[in-house]
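Subject: Sanity check before I submit

Could someone independently write out the structure tokens for this chain? I want to compare against mine line by line before I put it in a report. The sequence has 199 residues.
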Amino acid sequence: MPPGTTLLILANVAVFFLEQLAPGLIGPFALWPLGAAREVGVTFAPWQLVTYAFLHGGLMHLAFNMFALYMFGGAIEQVFGTRRYIVYYFVCAISAALTQLVFALVTGGMYPVVGASGAVFGLLLAYAMYFPNNRVMLIFPPIPMQARTFVFLYAALELFLGVSGTQEGVAHFAHLGGMIGGFIMLRWWGGRRVRRIIP
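---
Independent answer below. Compare away.
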């Protein structure tokens, strides 16, 4: 596994264990909406745009994100190189956070957001662009499909769930924000196969 992906996984796991020892980390380091101070007494701080991505809401949340990071991150790191890969990862995480802040401002939601999912969704997008015809096997249902098809359907599902609000407790627009940030970054870098993600 490439060094950047290894470092990110180790950092996420280490912070998760730190969370178990110091549960109060959620307060200052989770991503809080801009108006949270008035409602729940917790203030948004700029560092939360990054720190939230290393916190997780449970072992399964961590395991799912780290498995996806392992599956897709290594391949993207080999394409980008470690330095550019790390930059891309954090751009996606920050873009996801900014999207979530806008969504919370519009809807009035006052809950904290944690998890690496926004950055992981950016990696999924990059994988679909650079390896559009690679087969991806879903866990449930166990159906193989091309990477570009998988990402397109997953993004459509996230949009539906976010708009309909049928799955509470999941920051669907943060996931989409990670993809948007990744797309903009790849375009800025002159990313190839941009138009091939649509089946």
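---
OP: Matches mine. For the report I'm noting this point. The domain at 3-197 is CATH 1.20.1540.10 (Rhomboid-like fold).
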